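#random but structural
TW: two for the price of one
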Amino acid sequence: MKNKLEVLSPVGDLERLYAAIQYGADAIYLGGTDFGMRTSTNNFTFDEMKKGVDFAHENNVDVYLTCNTIPTNEEMDVLPEFLKNSEKSGVDAFIVADIGTLSLAKKHTPNMEIHISTQAGIMNYSTANAMYDLGANRIVLARELSLEDIKIIRDKTNPNIEIEAFVHGAMCMAFSGRCLISNYMLGRDANRGSCAQPCRWEYFLIDGRKPDIRYPIFEDEKGTHILNAKDLCMIEYIDKIADAGVSSLKIEGRAKSSYYVSVITNAYRLAVDQYYKDPKNFKLDNWVLDEVFKVSHRKYSTGFYFGKQSDSEYYENGGYSRNYDIIAVINQHKDNYLECTQKNKFCIGEKVEIMQPGKKPIEFIIQNIIDKDKNLSIDSACHATMKINIPFDVEEIISGSIIRRYK
């Protein structure tokens, strides 16, 4: 069993896998082309999975594979082969929700670690112990538990079973993500990876006698988003999560961008490292907290960790706040130039930040932009993925760092 808190990051493809590892993940979780809960992401073929696992292991990072849909009879026939091929790729654990899947994994891949998905809805120590008896190495707790609930589970379970809990990202308006709204309204099954997120939509009341008239649920012409949960953020409470007995801090977001994965992984890496410097007096630096607001996000809450919250929904709209754009990725810093690949148009004179793994962002104003051959000064980087150079002699910058700007 691991003794230190694990920062566990989501990856939807190889680009995000590399980003998560560079920015400090201890472990990553990903999905194959089948049996995972995110069909909208690119996901990994077996060849890509093998490539990603090899890179992760070279950097001492573990890889967990999601197999957490509830398979049909037909899918059960092909699941054993999927599990065996996944094991060959070198993944370190399967994340499962279904007892049948667990049984087949123990039969066909007996040496594979098993993590029980949050989809299983583990709410108590008896269920946790039963899963351990069935062969689970880790449980991913239901998101509806308080810190006090988690402490009880930790105290009354076998000490060899690890506890993982979500600490950041989107929350569902359903028990541990087991939602039927999308399936009922659109035929897109949330529990099979195809959620359309109707909980984020705007709703009105309609009188059956007057079907053409829509009544806002509140006195607001915009209607109301009655099912829209805030995003979870527990970065300020790493000490309390550790004290409760959680060993793995899970970040939601396999469908999120590489930039999102980089920033949030980096923030939680910094927070955990700061916690271990003085566990008894943990207080997060303000600049680290600021990082979680520099990605696309809904309003934040602490979910159920401090008991049932009265402000866990946001009624004004279902959209995201996004105050920063990534404008370039730094390929290398050489001869006082940042050699970059452009991601969004930017111009001379703009104030930007450089975000590096494990370091405080550096603010500076772009004084000059030079073409890829360092021959010509240009006013702007205006072509997608163009290679450009930016003079910079303040300090050495790590390759793979990100340049972003406030919108």
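TW: number two ↓
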Amino acid sequence: MKSFILFILFGILSSAGFSQLYFKGTLKANREKMHKNLVQNTINKNLSSSLTDSTEEDWQGAFGALEFLQYKSLWVNQRIDTAADLMHGRSETFQRAALELLYGNYPNKYYQPVKLLLMQTGNAKLFAMCAAYILNSSHATEDGNFLSVKTKQQLALDPENPILQELLYQIEQFNKPFIPAAIEGLLQKDYLPGHVVVYSFQRKNRNYPGLVMVRDANGNFIKDSNGLYFSVPQLARSSSNLPGYLTNGSTPEGIFRMKGYDVSMNGFIGPTVNVQLSMPFEKPAQHFYADSSITDTSWNIQYYRNLLPTELKDYYPMYQSYYAGKAGRSEIIIHGTTISPTYYASEPYFPLTPTMGCLTSKEIWNEETGQRIESDQQKLINALIPAGGPQGYTIVINLDNEQKPVILYDILPFIEKANRK
């Protein structure tokens, strides 16, 4: 019933012109107020205290604000020096928050304290975050074999750990040429029959925006009023840009169950209708596979494998959403944004804004009136209406490692080839 009401609601909004939507948080005065509060209180005030057991949470709050604002100053950098030097003796929660900030805002700089933590920790997630930091640094080549050996030692103790399995694959692929996936099977008309499919085509380097397209339940790609395939840019990069198998990392590759619309109460997502997704392990297998005959409460990877076309059944990157879900990732959705894009003006993905790992569409808001004046998210929602709504699957896949945004002309040859089969 909730999805039906939302369908009617945004159908009305669409016919009336979607620029009428309003959100007071996007007013210039409110954005400036939020920025000032984050800098003065969440960052400067919290980092002014000595780092103790009772102030760890304050420092973690500051880390989150620094990552979000991409904020740096000489004094802040000195406080991060302190956090990095002391983090090996802090709680695992603090270590995780610190590593996320260091990976996103300070790549390479803190190699020594991160490697020290890697040598000491017995926590698989922290170990993987440390290893990912080193792989993203200038020391990656010299430490590659060391990281491989250490990861295999960890796996020997915990062979089914999905984070360690994904980490080992990442290490083994380091410095190897990217091998593009054969995606034509995903695009064929008879793939996942009866299900609407949203495709999010991405680059391996998530600093560059991807492209989202929609296929209806009959296997036809949605086209616009000019007869062209519908597509809008979509960002699959998180603020930290950690690997997708880690919490708050960029959106994992693979298959997501798509079921329903919602409107978020989160002030950074805003009031534009979003698309609800779930990952393997996030909800029962019966829900993910849309198969009421599945009564087994345990997850069998063979069911996931069966969702893939023949050419991709042995393509390991397409299983990242499976292993990320097994590792505990959740709450990844497709949404718009009310975040000021000015924080990321120097980034290749500007004016899109990163998240905590969701798929994000560009939205531009009038800072004088608070009205939405441009929304790729609404365009996506409008494309889903004739497709049959969000009842099916979303597929995220890296096309290649080109250092530029994905555009429609990158996808057309694959669609044409798929249609010839």
